[in-house]
């Protein structure tokens, strides 16, 4: 898809063209293109070491990258990470990236760094989605359970009022029931109009949420599939073995 | 509006315990005023170091960066005040502010390229800064009088009124130290302070939330330099004499001991650490040749049993009390 020549209605929320990244001489991400439409939930699937996290970091410029990235048709390739948040692109990193010595409240307030005036109302929305965080409001983030920490990481990202929420393996290290609970919340957020780009290893969970998936292997997107086209996991497995 | 409106972004009220350190500082200063000039001088050093360490805490504690070179800005403050007052007859207070401004500019110039470094590399670069300024104070004898040091520096004062006695100066130092701590606490609680805390917690997470970490690190570095410069100036006016040794590696080691012993990243840690590290060796004079061993043994003991510093103990007690209440 091309940003140029498209009508306003069909301009993707995010479009990456030939984005690539290297660590020294090792090219961890080969030139790759993808797009996410307004209000869409897209999943990136792939085995360990395929380049999923590098792709997310390259899109948000946490890792130096080549290629172009457009947000609603605007070229944001040269923008540093902190300016992407001002555009509404917020990422929840693998490992959650919480501030462990701070309370739940402080973590959430920092999340509203760009929207301080709306912090109180936004916190209400977060607690509506994750009531358990309200109960733990003055608890130190580092002392929360894994599931609660993930809720806090997503809640903190919501405080930044994202238009596109990017999540890197939010179910990592969580019990299946908790992982399902968290991914269901993502589905709810998507219903509320937030575009979501989700990196996930747990294919069954991811396929329940998304209507479209990208499969990444050896640093390159090897397939773009609609979830209703996937009849069995064997269809995916062959890409994993690419 | 839904129940959202009932949720406060601020924690419930300021606890009365938060004022205890202010009372403690006033009591310590009061004790000093009733004691000999020697004790007053020791306490004066403690409050000058309180200002220095409060600034260092801004950069190292709140922002999570490493700096071994803050002594350079103390030297700029100290020598700047000495030269401006002794040679050019400036008002001490005016010289203090002028050298703070100079230190701030120097911090921007040095910090802009240096703060791109991280961890050990930043530590080494700032250490080099301290060493360079130390060498300048020795070698540039035309300006600093080298090892001979600079004497004849007038005491702190304003509009012709000078704080002549050490006790008057101690009162001024206590007021300035408390003011410095209050400003730091206010900044820490602000949006700016929260941004610094996010950098200390996780730089990539802070970036992802929109925090311009390069700018904030530089501002924190400049604030630390302003505090260090003020401490250097106050030292010059308090003692009336400065030499390169005052701003050498010992100052760095001493301030680190104060910061970690008191509690890095806490509001009152620098004050507690500065008072203990300054007063303890004097309190142990009775041990004679065992004084240094006794002093270091106590420091090690404190660090083992309060690894997050003495100020961190109050948080620990708070958590224990909370759990006891919860269990009951």
Structure description:
Chain B: This is Branched-chain amino acid transport system permease protein. The complex is a heterodimer of chains A (242) and B (328). By secondary structure, chain A is of the alpha/beta class. Chain A has a domain at 99-160. Chain A is built from 9 helices and 10 strands. Chain A has a 6-stranded mixed β-sheet with strand order 6-7-8-3-9-10, sandwiched between helices. In chain A, a hairpin with a 2-residue loop joins strand 1 (14-23) and strand 2. The longest helix of chain A is centred in the C-terminal third of the chain and has 16 residues, at 176-191. The two termini of chain A are 24 Å apart. Chain B is mainly α and 328 residues long. Chain B has a single domain, classed as ABC transporter involved in vitamin B12 uptake, BtuC (Orthogonal Bundle), CATH 1.10.3470. Chain B has helices spanning 20-33, 37-62, 71-87, 92-114, 119-139, 141-144, 166-189, 191-201, 203-208, 213-239, 249-262, 269-283, 291-305, 310-327; strands at 150-151, 157-158, 161-162, 241-242. A two-stranded antiparallel sheet of chain B has the order 1-4. The relative contact order of chain B is 0.16. The interface between A and B is medium-sized, with 42 and 28 residues.
List its traits.
heterodimer, A: 242 residues, alpha/beta, 6-stranded mixed beta sheet, 4-stranded antiparallel beta sheet, 9 helices, 10 strands, 26% strand, B: 328 residues, mainly alpha, ABC transporter involved in vitamin B12 uptake, BtuC, two-stranded antiparallel ribbon, 14 helices, ATP-binding (chain A)
SSE order and pairing:
The complex is a heterodimer of chains A (242) and B (328).
Chain A: E1 14-23, E2 26-36, E3 41-45, H1 52-59, E4 66-71, E5 74-75, H2 81-87, E6 89-92, H3 104-111, H4 119-129, H5 131-135, H6 146-159, E7 164-168, H7 176-191, E8 195-200, H8 203-209, E9 212-217, E10 220-226, H9 233-240
Parallel strand pairs in A: 3-8, 3-9, 6-7, 7-8
Antiparallel strand pairs in A: 1-2, 1-4, 4-5, 9-10
Helix pairs in contact in A: 3-6, 4-6
Chain B: H1 20-33, H2 37-62, H3 71-87, H4 92-114, H5 119-139, H6 141-144, E1 150-151, E2 157-158, E3 161-162, H7 166-189, H8 191-201, H9 203-208, H10 213-239, E4 241-242, H11 249-262, H12 269-283, H13 291-305, H14 310-327
């Amino acid at each position: 898809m091309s940003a140029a020549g498209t009508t306003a209605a069909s301009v993707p929320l995010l479009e990456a063209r030939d984005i690539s990244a290297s660590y020294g001489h090792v090219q961890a991400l080969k030139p790759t293109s993808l797009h996410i439409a307004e209000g869409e939930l897209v999943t990136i699937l792939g085995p360990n070491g395929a380049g999923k996290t590098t792709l997310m970091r390259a899109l948000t410029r946490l890792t130096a990258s080549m290629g172009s990235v457009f947000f609603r048709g605007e070229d944001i390739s040269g923008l540093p990470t902190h300016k992407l948040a001002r555009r509404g692109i917020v990422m929840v990193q693998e490992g959650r990236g919480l501030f462990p010595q701070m309370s739940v409240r402080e973590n959430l307030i920092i999340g509203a760094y760009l929207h301080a005036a709306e912090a109180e109302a936004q916190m209400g929305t977060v607690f509506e989605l994750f009531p358990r965080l309200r109960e733990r409001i003055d608890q130190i983030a580092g002392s929360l359970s894994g599931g609660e920490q993930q809720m806090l990481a997503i809640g903190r990202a919501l405080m930044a009022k994202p238009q596109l929420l990017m999540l890197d393996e939010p179910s990592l290290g969580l019990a299946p029931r908790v992982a399902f609970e968290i991914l269901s919340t993502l589905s709810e957020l998507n219903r509320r109009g937030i575009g979501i780009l989700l990196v996930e290893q747990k294919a069954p969970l991811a396929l329940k949420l998304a209507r479209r998936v990208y499969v990444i292997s050896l640093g390159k997107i090897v397939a773009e599939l609609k979830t209703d086209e996937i009849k069995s996991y064997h269809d995916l497995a062959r890409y994993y073995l690419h | 509006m839904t129940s959202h409106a009932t949720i406060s972004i601020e924690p419930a009220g300021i606890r009365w315990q938060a004022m205890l350190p202010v009372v403690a500082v006033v009591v310590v200063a009061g004790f000093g005023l009733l004691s000999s000039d020697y004790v007053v001088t020791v306490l004066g050093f403690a409050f000058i170091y309180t200002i220095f360490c409060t600034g260092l805490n801004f950069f190292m504690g709140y922002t999570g960066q490493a700096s071994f070179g803050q002594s350079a800005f103390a030297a700029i403050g100290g020598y700047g005040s000495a030269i401006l007052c002794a040679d050019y007859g400036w008002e001490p207070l005016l010289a203090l502010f002028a050298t703070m401004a100079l230190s701030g500019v120097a911090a921007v110039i040095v910090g802009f390229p240096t703060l791109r470094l991280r961890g050990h590399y930043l530590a080494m670069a700032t250490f080099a800064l301290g060493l360079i300024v130390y060498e300048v104070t020795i070698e540039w004898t035309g300006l600093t009088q080298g090892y001979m040091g600079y004497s004849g520096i007038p005491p702190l004062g304003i509009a012709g009124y000078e704080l002549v006695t050490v006790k008057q100066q101690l009162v001024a130092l206590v007021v300035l130290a408390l003011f410095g701590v209050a400003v730091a606490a206010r900044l820490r609680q602000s949006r700016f302070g929260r941004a610094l805390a996010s950098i200390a917690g996780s730089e990539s997470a802070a970036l992802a939330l929109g925090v311009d970490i390069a700018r904030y690190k530089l501002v924190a570095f400049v604030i630390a330099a302003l505090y260090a410069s003020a401490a250097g100036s106050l030292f010059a006016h308090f003692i009336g004499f400065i030499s390169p040794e005052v701003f050498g590696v010992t100052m760095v080691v001493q301030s680190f001991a104060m910061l970690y012993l008191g509690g890095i990243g806490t509001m009152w840690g620098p004050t507690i650490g500065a008072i203990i590290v300054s007063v303890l060796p004097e309190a142990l004079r009775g041990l004679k040749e065992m004084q240094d061993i006794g002093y270091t043994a106590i420091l090690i003991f404190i660090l083992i049993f309060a690894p997050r510093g003495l100020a961190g103990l109050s948080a620990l007690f708070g958590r224990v009390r909370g759990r006891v209440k919860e269990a009951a």
